[in-house]
Amino acid sequence: MNLNEWTPICRVDEIPVLGARRVARPRGMDVAVFRNGEDQVFALLDRCPHKGGPLSQGIVFGTSVACPLHNQTIGLDDGCAKAPDEGCTPRFSCRVEAGQVFLDPVELATVALELEAPKAGPCK
Ligand code: FES
Question: What is the pTM of this model?
Answer without folding.
Answer: 0.93
